[in-house]
Amino acid sequence: MALWGGRFTQQADAKFKYFNDSLRFDYRLAIQDIEGSIGWAKAIQSVGILTESELEQLIAALKEVRAEVEPNLAIILKDDAEDIHSWVESKLIEKVGDLGKKLHTGRSRNDQVAVDIKMWCKVQAVALQERIRALQERLVSVAEENQNSVMPGYTHLQRAQPVTFAHWCMAYYEMLERDFSRLSDANKRMGTCPLGSGALAGTAYGIDRDLLARNLGFDEATRNSLDSVSDRDHILELLSTASISMVHLSRFAEDLIIFNSGESGFLEMSDRVTSGSSLMPQKKNPDACELIRGKSGRVFGALTGLLTTLKGLPLAYNKDMQEDKEGIFDALETWQACLEIAELVLVDIQVNTERTREAAQQGYANATELADYLVAKGVPFREAHHIVGEAVVYAISKKEPLEALSIAEFQQFHPTIGDDVYPILSLESCLDKRCAKGGVNPQRVAEAIAAAKANLAS
Ligand code: ARG
């Protein structure tokens, strides 16, 4: 039964009905729709639309509906209602008869859907924060085990300066920390409740909307009814937070794919997160990471899609806004899955520290150290940079690392270079010197790990 049959004499075309209906995706809002309805029943009881006992009956019936679907929302899909709001109302009427028809007094599906999706977003934000924390914890523990795993750091995908695998892990920890805080910020702005805004102009019943808001877990009621029914900022904020985080996860995946390649051989991913080739028996493909990288596309797509849908809409509600749902449902599910799989990828990851160390030693990653050494001997940095460039060209021609050059060879480039140059060219010295806050000095990294652990424990 449609909610709005009175004005119509003809049946909707079946194709249009399918096109227009949203139950097949908005069934996910069932719990929020029921909670919102309980809140609304209390609100209209307070202005005399329902008696105490009618309110009790309605609440009991709504709770029954909730208990029936909560274990598996997908059972709703066997019914043929237009959307989740009509579905809940029809279940209610099945249970309590005509009394159920009173519930929609003073309410519109416009403020109803607005409150449902906002409550759903609040729940999701918290669940996603938990997933982010779990991945951060894993990163910190992998960092802790790999404080001595020296590897090349890159710029332009060229070996640049040595870092440690721990420092690499902690870089992703920081990105996730920002994602976490973006969710907290978004959550603060999700504290206002749109229910009681009516179709667009406000409800004609003198209810206490702030009380209604608090009953539904919000801080207060929204302040403008036109805005309330047409605002989807919270969905956009979650989609942009998801998109930024997917950029992080995609880069994480890409780094690991490179590190896992035969060319790098820096690490091996566990059999639990890799797949074989149907043709080439030797292969072990990093599918988990490739899918994380690949799935970022659909999350960005959901953000771009909703921005585009909303940009030209006149106030207030328009049916276009029903298109907000599939994108946010899919994007948050995808983001959540990627956070989980990223964590799994890290579980049994094996860093080949011999190989990473060897790679860090190649590629003249210590050239900056030699320049700094010359600076300490009074050579201006620009000049030192040039001298070291020449020394690197010479070492390349001999197929040797810088530290294999003799003093006599070094002195062709600058007379001040002495025996004390060798210790500063070592990997350990390269790391040790980067001792200002945020640098790869092992002590600093250990402090970063300790600070992260304290943050995660708090
Ligand atoms: N399914 C609709 C949506 O998701 C619910 C609101 C319908 N409102 C209306 N005036 N038809 O947006």
From TrEMBL:
Residues 6-301 form the Fumarate lyase N-terminal domain. It comes from the Bacteria. GO terms for biological process: L-arginine biosynthetic process via ornithine. Its EC number is 4.3.2.1. GO terms for cellular component: cytosol. It catalyses: 2-(N(omega)-L-arginino)succinate = fumarate + L-arginine. Pathway: Amino-acid biosynthesis; L-arginine biosynthesis; L-arginine from L-ornithine and carbamoyl phosphate: step 3/3. This is Argininosuccinate lyase. The gene is argH.
